[in-house]
Amino acid sequence: MKIVILDGYTENPGDLSWEGFEKLGELTVYDRSSLTDPQEAISRIGNADAVITNKTPITAEVINTCPSIRYIGVLATGYNVVDVAAAKGRGIPVCNIPTYGTDAVGQFAIALLLEVCHHIGHHDEAVKEGRWEKNPDWCFWDFPLIELAGKTMGIIGFGRIGQSTGKIAKALNMKVIANDGYPNEVGKSIADYVSLDDLFARSHVIALHCPLFAETQGIINKTNIAKMRDGVIILNNSRGPLVVEQDLADALNSGKVDAAGLDVVSTEPIQGDNPLLRAKNCIITPHISWAPKESRQRLMDIAVENFAAFIRGVPVNAVN
User: Would you tell me which of 209, 227, 234, 251 could form a disulfide with 256, CB atoms 3.0–4.6 Å apart?
Assistant: First the structure.
C-alpha cells in the first residue's frame, strides 16, 4: 500500500518516529501542504491508497480526482477538513483520533489559570532584569495575585477533558460546577451539574471544554457575559469559535472580565486584526494544549492502529 502524509510536521517535528506507518506500506511524508490549493494535495496523493492529513483539506475535488484513495486518516480529533460525505459516497472510511490528549489538555487549562493568577512568566522576567536585586523591599509583585481555594470553577462541556480539568480544580480546593447535555455518574463525583445561566452567575472561573456545535458557537458573547460575575476569568482551550472575540475583548477592556487564558482563536494561525491581541489581561498561546510528546505519541499510536485495522478489514474510529 502507498501511504501519503500531507502535513506531518506538527505531529512529528522530529522527536517521534513514522516507523509504525513504514511497516504498513510505502510511506511518503510531507511536512506541510497548501491549505488553499487542492491541486497540490492532488499531486502529492497521486496514486496513493491511503492519505493522512492533519489540517490539509481533503475536499470533494481531491477525493474525486484521486481514484486510488481507499482510506483517509486524520491526525486529530476534529475532522472538518475532510469532506466526509464525499468520502462516504466512494466507500472511503475517514478515521480520526477520538481520545489522546485528555490529561494534557486538562493540565493546560489549569496552566492558563495559574498564569492568570500569578503572572509567573512576567515576574521571572522582572527578576532577571534586575528588579528584585534593586528592590527596596524583600519582595514585590506587579499584579494582584489570586488564591483559587474556595472559588467556583464552572466547566461548560463535561466529557473526559472537562472532567480532567475538574479533578485538578478540586485538588486546588475549588468548588466545581458543570453544564453538559449528558450528565453521568463520573461527572457527578467531580462536579454539581447546573443550568448554563446558573453556571454563568456563580462561577469565578469559566472553562470551555465543549465541542463546537451550532448551539455552542459564540456561547461566550456579550449577552452571556452580562450574566457573569464581575471579574470572572474565562479559559478556552477547546475551540476558538466558542467565543465572540470582539465581545470578549470589550469585556476585558471594561474590566467586566478580569482575565482570559486562550489556547485557541477563531482563525488559526491568529490574524493580526484579532481584537484579543490588544485586549487587557489576555493570555494567548498558539494551540499547544495537545502537543506534549506523550500526547503526540499516543496520537501516533492510534493513527497507526486505525490504519492497521483498516488493512485487516475492520476499520475503527470511522466517523462516516
Answer: 251
Concerning whether 239 is annotated as a catalytic residue, the answer is: yes
Q: Which of 209, 239, 296, 298 is catalytic?
A: 239
Instruction: Kindly report, residue by residue over 7-38, the tens digit of the pLDDT.
Output: 999 999 999 999 999 999 999 999 999 999 99
Q: What is the pTM of this model?
A: 0.94
Q: What is the CATH number of the domain that holds 29?
A: 3.40.50.720
The Cα–Cα gap between 296 and 290 comes to 7
Whether residue 151 lies inside any domain: the answer is: yes
2-5 sheet: strands from edge to edge: 26-29, 2-5, 50-53, 71-74, 94-95
pLDDT for res 142: 97
312 CB-near residues (< 8 Å, 6+ apart): none
The count of domains in the chain is: 2
Strand arrangement of the beta sheet that strand 175-179 belongs to: 192-193, 175-179, 152-156, 205-208, 232-236, 257-262, 282-284
> Using one digit for the tens of pLDDT, what is the confidence trace for 121-156?
999 999 999 999 999 999 999 999 999 999 999 999
Query: Does 96 share its domain with 108?
Result: no
Catalytic residue among 22, 125, 147, 268: 268
Task: Verify that 57 and 36 share a domain, yes or no.
Answer: yes
Q: Which three cell numbers stand for residue 53?
A: 492529513
To the query of whether residue 122 is one of the catalytic residues in this protein, the response is no
**Same domain as 268, residue 166:** yes
Provide the percentage of residues in the chain whose pLDDT is more than 70.
100
Domain that holds residue 69: 2-100+293-311
What integer pLDDT is reported at residue 276 of this predicted model? 98
pLDDT tens, 176-187? 999 999 999 999
Q: Is 202 a catalytic residue?
A: no
* Torsions phi, psi for 52 (to 5 deg): -115, 130
- Residue 41 to residue 35: CA distance in whole angstroms: 9
